[in-house]
Design a protein that fits this description.
heterodimer, A: 219 residues, Nitrile Hydratase, Chain A, two-stranded parallel sheet, 11% strand, B: 225 residues, alpha+beta, Cyclin A, domain 1, SH3 type barrels, 17% strand
């Protein structure tokens, strides 16, 4: 994919009051990139490659494969919980914003949820770039004081008695939630299991899908 | 810095706005802003904590009004201007008016994959024994530094329990001490400390709720046994 692909202008769903900001930012970023290139500080082809990396290669499909393997392979699950950085690196997901990984398993007793109250820390190698809501003031402010109310915004209600554990990523450690494996998936391949693993389930603002939620049937 | 970025526990920001089928970028400028910010970070002329500090110290209204990539862009401009790589006049006119600074490392397209896959690990070897142990009760200190810190306000003064020890990591508060490399890479033991919701939020806390932060050793004190 090239830099020209994708969406050159603001999307129709952008709020009206953002239009002037977006116009201003279009000009500002274009001017900045041009200036840096002309001064010899920036290779625009490197910018293209960085964008392509996160548009095409690195995203929540990576994390879904990690979770699926942990569900299917008890030895891998143990390794993931013991040393997530190494276990995830064994699948070639490494590097920027995932240098120090910790996987936190959901259990019937405890649901985990991840936030970065101070900025936008997010495990890029397994989840890609964060959605807008993850970086929003509403999520960052409320996740630590009323996580159940935040989950309600996502349509998630935890069973009575299940505790909630919020991980605020204030250092360079990045957290990946290991969701509970849905019932009715016995014998599924890793590839099939990965289809049940949503981005939000790995942040903890969602749960893994159930078999009936996806169109492809179990074997 | 007790800035607007330190949002944990604030009230009044409304419900979380979740966009169905959200695109990765909202407009071409966000794509380029991400790419330019990451590419220029490879110059090595600042570090992640200096970048965060630049974002946090933007005018508060700029910060809360976002969008987030606008925060990144404005902070990047600040980092570039502070170091003399570009000038306000050049930004305003959109063209070079001064000679480039010599010797700036330029990330080439062919180097991108390796650079991203390598990242920038923050752990460092340490000869210091950790002061705290997993299971120990600790208090987050009541610290209010003018400069950059990663101890959020909502845990300061509160008592929690160490649940993980991550080894020794570069201390953000000192990593910002020098504007240009070589940076102050002082490292300290880093812990995950978990707090009960009632400890943080009192009687209004939701039931069955705990919150952890990752805290460096100098953010914490031991409780008397």
């Amino acid at each position: 994919m090239t830099a020209e692909a994708g969406h050159p202008h603001a999307h129709p769903h952008d709020h009206d009051h953002e239009h002037s900001t977006l116009g201003e930012m279009d000009l500002r970023v274009r001017a900045l990139e041009t200036l840096l290139t002309q001064k010899g500080y920036l290779d625009p082809a490197a910018v293209d490659r960085i964008i392509e990396t996160y548009e095409v290669h690195v995203g929540p499909h990576n994390g879904a494969k990690v979770v699926a393997r942990a569900w299917a392979d008890p030895a891998f699950r143990d390794w993931l919980l013991q040393d997530a950085t190494a276990a995830i690196a064994s699948m070639d997901y490494t590097g920027r914003q995932g240098e120090h990984m910790v996987a936190v398993p959901n259990t019937p007793d405890t649901h985990n949820m991840v936030v970065c109250t101070l900025c936008s820390c997010y495990p890029w190698p397994v989840l890609g770039l964060p959605p807008v809501w993850y970086k929003s003031a509403a999520y960052r402010s409320r996740a630590v004081i009323e996580p159940r109310a935040v989950l309600a915004d996502f349509g998630v209600t935890l069973p009575p008695g299940q505790n909630i554990r919020v991980w605020d990523s204030t250092a360079e450690v990045r957290y990946l939630v290991l969701p509970e494996r849905p019932a009715g998936t016995e014998g599924w391949s890793e590839e099939q299991l990965a289809q049940l693993v949503t981005r939000d389930a790995m942040i903890g603002t969602g749960l893994a899908l159930n078999p009936q939620d996806i169109t492809k049937e179990a074997p | 810095m007790n800035g607007v970025h330190d949002m944990g526990g604030m009230q009044g920001y409304g419900t979380v706005q979740i966009e169905a089928n959200e695109p990765l970028f909202h407009g071409e400028w966000e794509r380029r802003a991400l790419g330019v910010t990451v590419a220029m970070g490879a110059s090595g002329l600042w570090n992640i904590d200096l970048a965060r500090s630049a974002r946090e110290s933007l005018p508060p209204l700029d910060y809360v009004q976002g969008p987030y990539y606008a925060i990144w862009t404005k902070a990047l401009q600040k980092l570039l201007i502070e170091r003399g790589l570009i000038t306000e006049q050049e930004l305003a006119q959109g063209q070079p008016l001064t000679p480039p600074v010599a010797g700036v490392r330029v990330l080439k397209a062919a180097e991108v994959d390796a650079a991203l896959a390598k990242g920038s690990p923050a752990n460092r070897p340490s000869t210091q024994a950790p002061r705290f142990a997993v299971g120990q009760r600790v208090r987050a200190l009541n610290l209010n530094p003018q400069g950059h810190t990663r101890l959020p306000r909502y845990v300061r003064g509160h008592v929690g329990t160490v649940v993980l020890h991550h080894g020794s990591h570069v201390l953000p508060d000192q990593h910002v001490n020098k504007m240009l490399p070589p940076f102050d890479g002082t490292a300290e033991h880093l812990y995950t400390v978990v707090f009960d919701g009632t400890e943080l939020w009192g009687p209004q806390a939701e039931a069955g709720h705990q919150v952890s932060v990752d805290a460096w050793e100098s953010y914490l004190e031991a409780l008397p046994a």
